[in-house]
């Protein structure tokens, strides 16, 4: 069966790559390719099995809620998700027109980044110190990256489960130099022309350091993960809200 895929944000850096990946995939066909100003109500279960949404953090929640109400499954790569926004998606799914409807949200579709994030949760209980550095192209509108937030949250949860206290830090004044803090984990954002998407997780104990690093040099690195999510949702076997590509990997 051919999977009919519509793309929202199709003119963007990610959306245009998704359009090409869908057109090149033997088991998918492009249904609609929409961008800002287009009417999303054109997307219906009659023409679309799965929508892929890569837009901007300020509009993605509204798009996803509208698409759920229209009865379609949605794969979301846009960042900016908070617990409150995820709760709104869950509530929309609870009232969705079809009982088996799915929304899948991933802060990162690159296997290197997903594994780095996963390895960081495994390492976290064994180190006194942990910090996250994300490095991206300067056209990115949000900081820190959705991936870095997810990684820091995972590290914090693993530390808490292991009974670790706060990371040691005797800084008395920083003027912003210590970066943002996500669940007690410092997160630093670099924006540099020439970069694409990169993350480094630093762990430290007295006398030793572990560095976990993932580099996406090209947006093609995200496409296998996007297509994997499209294929998974097209089966109807993942009703409800799922967050993170690790859920579709045998880790
Ligand atoms: N999950 C991942 O693996 C991954 C990878 C790369 C980027 N991202 C995220 O994806 C998002 C998009 O990144 P990008 O680099 O493609 O950005 P971009 O600015 O190149 O593209 C965004 C597109 O969305 C369109 N858009 C804006 N408002 C819209 C609306 N209301 N309806 C439809 N389209 C609308 C814009 O016109 C633009 O074409 C960002 O949040 C980014 O962080 C995620
Ligand atoms: O280029 C971007 O923008 C990216 N955004 C995601 C994030 O914020 O984590 C994933 C990596 C690329």
UniProtKB/TrEMBL annotation:
Q: What is this protein called?
A: 4-hydroxy-tetrahydrodipicolinate reductase
Tell me, which GO biological process terms does this entry list? diaminopimelate biosynthetic process; lysine biosynthetic process via diaminopimelate
Signal peptide location: none
Gene Ontology MF terms in the entry: 4-hydroxy-tetrahydrodipicolinate reductase; NAD binding; NADP binding; oxidoreductase activity, acting on CH or CH2 groups, NAD or NADP as acceptor
Say what the protein does. Answer: Catalyzes the conversion of 4-hydroxy-tetrahydrodipicolinate (HTPA) to tetrahydrodipicolinate.
Q: How does it assemble?
A: Homotetramer.
Domain named Dihydrodipicolinate reductase C-terminal: which ranges? 118-247
The EC number of this protein is: 1.17.1.8
Provide the catalytic activity annotation. (S)-2,3,4,5-tetrahydrodipicolinate + NAD(+) + H2O = (2S,4S)-4-hydroxy-2,3,4,5-tetrahydrodipicolinate + NADH + H(+); (S)-2,3,4,5-tetrahydrodipicolinate + NADP(+) + H2O = (2S,4S)-4-hydroxy-2,3,4,5-tetrahydrodipicolinate + NADPH + H(+)
Going by the record, the broad EC class of this enzyme is: oxidoreductase
Cell compartments where the protein resides: Cytoplasm
Name the lineage.
Bacteria, Bacillati, Actinomycetota, Actinomycetes, Bifidobacteriales
- Family under the similarity heading: Belongs to the DapB family.
Principal subcellular localization: cytoplasm
Protein keywords:
Amino-acid biosynthesis, Cytoplasm, Diaminopimelate biosynthesis, Lysine biosynthesis, NAD, NADP, Oxidoreductase
Q: Which InterPro entries match?
A: DapB_C, DapB_N, DapB_N_CS, DHDPR_bac, NAD(P)-bd_dom_sf
Coding gene?
A: dapB
Listed NCBIfam families: dapB
* Metabolic or biological pathway, per its Swiss-Prot or TrEMBL entry: Amino-acid biosynthesis; L-lysine biosynthesis via DAP pathway; (S)-tetrahydrodipicolinate from L-aspartate: step 4/4
- Active site positions, chain numbering: 136, 140
What positions does the entry give for NAD(+) binding? Answer: 9-14, 35, 77-79, 106-109
Q: Which residues bind (S)-2,3,4,5-tetrahydrodipicolinate?
A: 137, 146-147
Which Gene Ontology cellular component terms are annotated?
A: cytosol
Query: Which HAMAP family is this protein grouped with?
Result: DapB
Please list the residue ranges annotated as the Dihydrodipicolinate reductase N-terminal domain. Answer: 3-109
